[in-house]
């Protein structure tokens, strides 16, 4: 079994037991496909005003996507994850953000192997660098070192206990999540859910020095009073 250092560091502490419980990288990895702008997602170069670190609740992702081929490594290969790293996204100074700032090379296998236990999808890694990493002026290895480094420092509340709490709201969840992380407050994150109110992602707002900061008013997410449910997975 091969784990990233971030995954290993988070296996023991109780407040952090929601990341990579088990992650074995196969000997042969699929090659990523090129990713770039299109009519729906055009190239956009605007100044960076801050960043978003987006993490995904894997139990819900696998509940919704387990039959998809792209989800096999994460959901159907014996691996088990808690929160995974969606990506590090540069934000703009207003409502628009930079994306696809320059052509992206195909990621090398060494970069993929170092990042796959944090972001368990070869194609998502390619997409994140193409859409977001190219706007930060960093080569792939440095972009993923930055994003996985930030992700690896996160700590998590007891997700099993939260999932059993009656009448849980997004605001209560954010407050509990913030208590596990020094310097983080509930207004420094956005909670996203599907239409049925099941937790999908947490978006953590960062300033230009990658420190937690209050989220701008134009960002989305649930209202603090919104009901929130947390999928635990089969038998949890």
Structural key phrases:
4-stranded antiparallel sheet; 26% helix; 236 residues; two-stranded antiparallel sheet; single chain; alpha+beta
Explain the overall architecture:
With 236 residues, the protein is α+β, with helices and mostly antiparallel strands. Helices cover 26% and strands 15% of the residues. The strands form two sheets. The protein has a four-stranded antiparallel beta sheet. Strands 1-3 form a two-stranded antiparallel sheet. A hairpin with a 5-residue loop joins strand 5 and strand 6. The two termini are 23 Å apart. The N terminus is likely disordered.
Tally of helical runs:
8
Terminal CA distance reads 23 Å
**Share in helix:** 25-40%
Radius of gyration in whole Å, from Cα?
17 Å
Largest sheet: spatial strand order: 4-2-6-5
Q: Strand-and-helix sequence, N→C?
A: HEEHHEEHHHHHEE
Question: Would you summarize the structure shown here?
Answer:
By secondary structure, this protein is of the alpha+beta class. The protein contains 8 helices and 6 strands. Strand 5 (189-193) and strand 6 (199-206) form a beta hairpin.
SSE arrangement:
Elements lengths: L4 H5 L10 E3 L27 E8 H8 L6 H4 L4 E2 L1 E9 L17 H7 L6 H10 L8 H13 L6 H5 L6 H10 L9 E5 L5 E8 L30
Antiparallel strand pairs: 1-3, 2-4, 2-6, 5-6
């Amino acid at each position: 079994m091969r784990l990233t250092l971030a995954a290993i560091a988070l296996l023991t502490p109780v407040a952090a037991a929601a990341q990579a419980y088990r992650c074995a990288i196969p000997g042969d990895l699929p090659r990523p496909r090129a990713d770039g702008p299109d009519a729906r997602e055009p190239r956009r170069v605007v100044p960076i005003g801050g960043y978003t670190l987006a993490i995904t609740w894997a139990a819900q992702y696998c509940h919704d996507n387990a039959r998809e081929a792209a989800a096999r490594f994460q959901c159907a290969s014996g691996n088990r994850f808690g929160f995974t790293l969606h990506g590090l996204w540069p934000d703009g100074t207003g409502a628009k953000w930079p994306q696809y700032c320059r052509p992206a090379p195909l990621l090398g296998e060494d970069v993929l192997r170092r990042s796959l236990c944090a972001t368990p999808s070869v194609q998502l890694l390619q997409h994140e660098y193409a859409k977001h990493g190219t706007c930060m002026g960093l080569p792939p290895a440095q972009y993923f070192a930055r994003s996985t480094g930030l992700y690896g420092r996160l700590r998590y509340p007891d997700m099993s206990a939260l999932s059993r709490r009656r009448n849980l709201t997004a605001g209560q969840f954010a407050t509990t999540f913030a208590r596990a992380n020094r310097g983080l407050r509930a207004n420094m994150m956005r909670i996203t859910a599907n239409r049925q109110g099941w937790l999908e992602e947490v978006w953590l707002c960062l300033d230009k020095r990658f420190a937690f900061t209050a989220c701008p008013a134009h960002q989305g997410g649930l209202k603090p009073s919104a009901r929130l449910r947390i999928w635990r997975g089969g038998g949890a």
